[in-house]
Amino acid sequence: MKFPGSVLISLVLFLSETTAAVCLSVLYRTDGDPMWHRLTLFFALLPCVLVQLSLVFIHRDVTRDRPLVLLLHLLQLGPLVRCVEAFYIYFHAGRVEEPYVTITKKWQVPKDGYSEEIEKEVGQAERKLFMHRSAFSRASVIQAFLGSAPQLTLQLYISVMEQELTAARSTFMILSLLSIVYGALRCNILAIRIKYDDYDVRVKPAAYLCIFLWRSLEIATRVTVLVLFSSVLRIWTFPLVLANFFGFFFFPWILFWRSESPFPQNIEKEFSRVGTTIVLCLLTFLYAGINMFCWSAVQVELSDPDLISKSQNWCRMAVYYVLRLFENAFLLMMWYLYKTDIYLYVCTPLLFLRLLLCYCMAVFFMLVFYQFCHPCKKLFSSSITEALLSCSKFLCFTGKSPKSTVLTEKAVVKSPENTDETRGSSKTIDSLKRSPHQSASSNA
């Protein structure tokens, strides 16, 4: 049984950030800044409430007779209680023989073209501990992108406008950045677990390091760009944020309406249609909050029974990073053109280039992760380099005239050589997909 280290890290970040936010809001109030006091306190309390609701929902405490646990959640002590319960399960596991044990079957990630099926006994204690890990992972994502990310943006904006970086504010900003990066890391791991649920996935330390560098550079650059733009063009900040947020919020719903799929009914049996709609809106709300600051590794698909797309869409990822790079460059250009006197002693061209370079470095570490450090890279139908080449060819292909594209499509359809090649390639891909299972049966 694995040590619940992720539960402990999530709790430490949650408690330290909440405590620092409350102390900083008190300092703003004593200094006579009521607006900063209210905003800091709001972005501290909102994720706390959402984290309590998520923990109660995942553990289904409403349908169980646990009034003390519900009271502690109302007192904002739910994560502390859940952490104590998780460690109690971990240290008391194996002392008493469990009456019911299930057997799970997982496939190993193929090595040298071979894969074996692993059978593992899972008891009640391990299943409960897994639920605690899953609940804290989702709570960390909510805390990161609905609380820490707006909080970091606010505190950096205050520091820029006041031209002062105090020790309390800098400490709080470091905690917020660590919370966001950890939430993004948990989001990546969660996406891998969901997409490759049939395999025994083990993430190596090199993969964690690549994700940490990728996410920290991406998020820090994005927050800095938003703060610089909002410090000189405050009027346009609100429309920019709304356009980004509602664009990502309605994107899964547009795909769902275009697919003409039935309304999801398997979220929770006790939920009515209105309750299911509220849960789906909260899910897309979180999805939009993540994409505001970084690429969400988990893609929401409302037409799927699991509500998560299990396919690896390289083209969508490439389009996101290209558009985000152009958007960051445009916002920095607007900041450079309309900068005020508060940037008089700042080398603005050098800062402009450094921010763009940091974002390119984030993309570089992302490519390194998917090309070399991804735990399931051997299960990819195509590598990320091949996908980027195909995306670039697709963009060049769409840039041609409509007549030429129609003629080329007709030529491809009529050509018998191309049809034979596509049939052969599809057979090859099917054989590769079946090879792990066939090798496992032959070994048995």
TrEMBL record:
GO terms for cellular component: plasma membrane. InterPro entries: XK-rel (IPR018629), XK-related_adapter (IPR051773). The chain crosses the membrane at residues 36-58, 167-185, 206-229, 235-256, 277-298, 318-338, 350-372. The gene is Xk. It is found in: Membrane. Pfam families: XK-related. This is XK-related protein. Belongs to the XK family. It comes from Smithornis capensis. It is a multi-pass membrane protein. Residues 1-20 form the signal peptide. The keyword Protease does not apply. It comes from the Eukaryota. Residues 412-444 are annotated as: Disordered. Keywords: Membrane, Signal, Transmembrane, Transmembrane helix.
